[in-house]
Design brief:
Radius of gyration: 17 Å
CATH class: Mainly Alpha
Oligomer: single chain
Strand order of the largest sheet: 3-5-4
Helix content: 40-55%
Order of helices and strands: HEEHEEEHHHH
Number of helices: 6
Shape: globular
Length: about 200
């Protein structure tokens, strides 16, 4: 049984992920009021589009990091622009590819550190170099996090440090607060990704 306190958060997560996946891949998306609108799948050109100079993005590892980045995070032939602490200020503008990669990594690692091996790091997470692959990776990551949530009971929701994700406040927060935080990550990055799609379409 899903703990009663978790149920509305899980419903919100499911809705946010469904909207974001539809917004990226089509063929239809829900505008939020129940109206379905046709939308084309995200292209590689959109995925890598830099609306302003010196964006942080996803890059081939052989190209090296972008401006103000000091490394390419992740595993494989592609990496995501990153820098150690202190991060650059003001923060670099990030592409759709960067935002989607960040969101996918967070969901994957938090799922692992909640109900998996509790060992995965950013260096283990593959970074995807094409739009279709990135959307599929997001869907898989969202599914992994959802599966992890279905494994918890009411006691776990109150347990501080139940998730051992090493890049957030998980060690200091009750797990239910982490669940809430993951939802807002999907909601706000999902809104950013949708806006970038709109801007790309209207770029003139």
């Amino acid at each position: 049984m899903i703990p009663p306190r978790l149920a509305p958060l899980l419903d919100q997560f499911d809705f946010a992920c469904e909207r974001l996946s539809g917004r990226m891949a089509g063929p239809v998306m829900d505008s939020g009021d129940g109206t379905e609108t046709r939308v084309g799948p995200m292209t590689d050109a959109e995925y890598f589009w830099e609306p302003v100079p010196d964006c942080w993005s996803v890059r081939r590892r052989t190209s090296g990091p972008g401006v103000r980045a000091t490394l390419l995070a992740g595993q494989g032939d592609w990496g995501r622009d990153a820098a150690g602490y202190p991060h650059p200020w003001p923060p670099p503008f990030t592409t759709l590819a960067w935002r989607l990669s960040h969101l996918t990594e967070m969901l994957t690692l938090r799922a692992d550190h909640t109900a998996g091996s509790r060992t995965l790091t950013r260096d283990d997470h593959p970074v995807t170099g094409d739009a279709a692959g990135a959307v599929a990776a997001f869907d898989a990551a969202a599914g992994a996090w959802r599966k992890a949530l279905l494994s918890v009971d009411d006691t776990a929701l109150d347990t501080v440090g139940y998730c051992t994700y090493p890049h957030g406040s998980d060690a200091e927060e009750p797990f239910i607060d982490i669940v809430w935080w993951v939802n807002q990550e999907v909601l706000h990055h999902g809104a950013e990704i949708a806006m970038l799609r709109d801007l790309y379409r209207e770029r003139g």
